[in-house]
Amino acid sequence: MSDPRLASLRAALPGLRLLTDPADLEHYGRDWTRRWTPAPLAIALPDRVEDVQGIVRWANDARVAVVPSGGRTGLSGGAVAANGELVVSLERMQRVLGVDPVDRTLTVQAGIPLQRVQDIAREHGLQYPVDFAARGSASIGGTIATNAGGIRVLRYGNTRAWIAGLKLVTGTGELLELGRALIKDSSGYDLRHLVIGAEGTLGIVVEATLSLTEPAPSGQTMLLALPGFEALMAVFALFRARLRLQAFEFLTDVALRHVLAHGGGQPPFAQPAPYYVVTEFDAGPDAEAEVLALFEQGLQDGVIVDGVLATSQAQAAQLWRLREGITESLARYVPYKNDVAVRISAMPAFLAEAQALLAREYPQFEVVWFGHIGDGNLHINILKPDAMTQADFVADCDRVTKLLAELLQRHGGTISAEHGIGLVKKPYLWSTRSPAEIAVMRGIKAVLDPNGIMNPGKLFD
């Protein structure tokens, strides 16, 4: 540890654990994007709020940038440290600070994994309903930083809806308590919501009070095979009108092939279809008869070609694996990812134009579609051909993303539905936010982070 800046940090916080081994710098310096070469100054692993405050104060004095780090499962480069930043990992801050069964809240340190939060809630007869495939790795702080969504937004909304309060170490090292788990509070600005989705650019979330709710009603899971892209919205409308949907997810035949190849499973139907839907809905005495009637109607209308209704939890898990296993099955390709959203009412027109755009601009690439039709969120993964260099691939994808951003702007959509802006989508923020909005965002950052040390270069320069 020859860098004099690290010597001064060690002197300021003698008990702080610091990592400087090259393998650690690489591991903690990047997220799932894998596009940038990690080059952090060091990795700090605090285990107390006071240490986080001390780190930030030191960083201001030393003029060292800070990159907050959770599970690093992000897909937009929001946790990348490629320019000599100090990574502040909260993985040692995983304590459960309190469960209140009356208020139905759970207070935790920000480094705790989402899966553990879900398990704790379940142990108390409640649930924390934010859920997605990376639940075992993603930290609560990271989900707050990106306002994470997932597979049950249709029923429960994004992370924002479940944050009753949080504690933030600002860019000056001050500790703010934002929100106090009050159901009603009209005492001025709710600064808590500025922090949710801010990607660590305003400070470091160190604690969170999470709202819990009743366990989800028992659900039934069904896999549907669809004849074409245009059938997606028709089937969604059909099922939503008569069932209490918990989730409605779609994937293409290309996505299914990758999942089956990665996991060694068998095709779910004798005849393949171009599109599939995994849907979950409240079970009940009449639910099975209702869904079978809807299935028959879909067959008659020509918007469904086949389907299977899970008859056990094991079978339901197998069907969900077809959707949740997509990201893992594509990881080895290091795909270029688009994470977009439009209003549900705008979805049919947008889908048609987006499909035409990508078919025209990506004739040489394999494109894998999947997403959350029920909340207007689409994930588009472009796979690099083996013979193409990474630089040429990214340049071509960036060119098309600009066209996609223009399309989203026309439809009133967003270039980032649930993964954040980070480094990947920073060039396209204009398509989602007006110049006046961006100016206000810059002003807010200047107040909470006057020296610009908190995750610089993310969101905007």
TrEMBL record:
Gene3D superfamilies cross-referenced by the UniProt entry: 3.30.465.10, 3.30.70.2190, 3.30.70.2740, Uridine Diphospho-n-acetylenolpyruvylglucosamine Reductase, domain 2, Vanillyl-alcohol Oxidase, Chain A, domain 4
Keywords tagged on the record: FAD, Flavoprotein, Oxidoreductase
Molecular functions (GO terms): FAD binding; oxidoreductase activity
SUPFAM superfamilies: FAD-binding/transporter-associated domain-like (SSF56176), FAD-linked oxidases, C-terminal domain (SSF55103)
Cofactor(s), by name: FAD
Origin: domain of life: Bacteria
Span of domain FAD-binding PCMH-type: 36-215
DNA damage in keyword set: no
Matching InterPro entries: FAD-bd_oxidored_4_C, FAD-bd_PCMH, FAD-bd_PCMH-like_sf, FAD-bd_PCMH_sub1, FAD-bd_PCMH_sub2, FAD-linked_Oxase-like_C, FAD-oxidored/transferase_4, Oxid_FAD_bind_N
Family: Belongs to the FAD-binding oxidoreductase/transferase type 4 family.
Name of protein: FAD/FMN-containing dehydrogenase
Phylogenetic lineage: Bacteria, Pseudomonadati, Pseudomonadota, Gammaproteobacteria, Lysobacterales
